[in-house]
Amino acid sequence: MSLLERIESCHRHDVAGYRPFLVEDRRVGFMRQDLAVELARYPSVFRVDPDQVSVAEHLDTFDYRSAAIDSVMREMRQQGLIRGWRDELFPVAESYGRPPLFDLERAAVPLFGVKAYGVHVNGYVQRDGETWLWVGRRAANRPIEPGKLDHLVAGGLPAGMKPFDNLIKEAAEEASVPKELARRARPCGALSYRMELDSCLRDDTIFVYDLELPADFVPQNHDGEIADFQLMSLGEVERLLAETTSFKFNVGLVIVDFLIRHGHIAPDRPDYAQLAMAVARKP
């Protein structure tokens, strides 16, 4: 698989296989068909039509919607219909920065196909004039992509938390990055993708940060989510992305963006324009 194919895999989807999910007549997601069938059993919470699913109109506030939907999600969890329960709420809104319409258990977010947000940190060091990237390996018990390679720091953005605050928290838990060092992270933009994964539609935006680390810094995991870390040359990172499936599905998108911004992938490459446009593509 080429780098371009790696990026394009993050944009591969067909919404025709899903039902639009609406709140107050605004589409906020694309729902799995089998979930729509299950939700028809809860007419006091969801209105299920052949061509769409919407939250019941009498649930007209954030608190009412959040409580009613959470009750349904917990019942479906007990029935084995929602797996990998996280006890972590994600906000559901029409777009980033808009008031949330309700909060949803993180494990259910892909089932509803609603927008989710996360933070990824490119942790790198400079040695002898070359750039090296710290890469983590996800623990074997992770619910998504266990054992795959990942960023130094990466995490979903839960309800009520700002991206930079989440970065500081995740950096300490995942890689033992001191707060004073983590605060040096530089925001580098946002990357969005919409893809089908495990029969769900993932509609995600990643807030990207670069963090230059001291040459003698060695990350250590504290929360059990990362098995180990490796310091890799950019050439080795590119090779693994292009020739293997070692990396988590969305990490390649962020790393190729890093390789372009840091000049490792330069305009003299024949595929440069294609890669740059593919990274910047919006769903």
TrEMBL record:
Signal peptide (residue range): none
User: Which named protein is this?
Assistant: Uncharacterized protein DUF4743
Domain Nudix hydrolase residue range list? 116-257
Gene3D superfamilies cross-referenced by the UniProt entry: Nucleoside Triphosphate Pyrophosphohydrolase (3.90.79.10)
Species the sequence originates in = Dongia mobilis
* Pfam families given in the database record: DUF4743, NUDIX
The domain of life is Bacteria
The record's annotation in InterPro entries points to: DUF4743, NUDIX_hydrolase-like_dom_sf, NUDIX_hydrolase_dom
Alphabetized PANTHER family for the sequence: THIAMIN PYROPHOSPHOKINASE, THIAMIN PYROPHOSPHOKINASE 1
Picking any one GO molecular function of the record gives:
8-oxo-dGDP phosphatase activity
Which CDD domains does the protein's record reference?
NUDIX_Tnr3_like
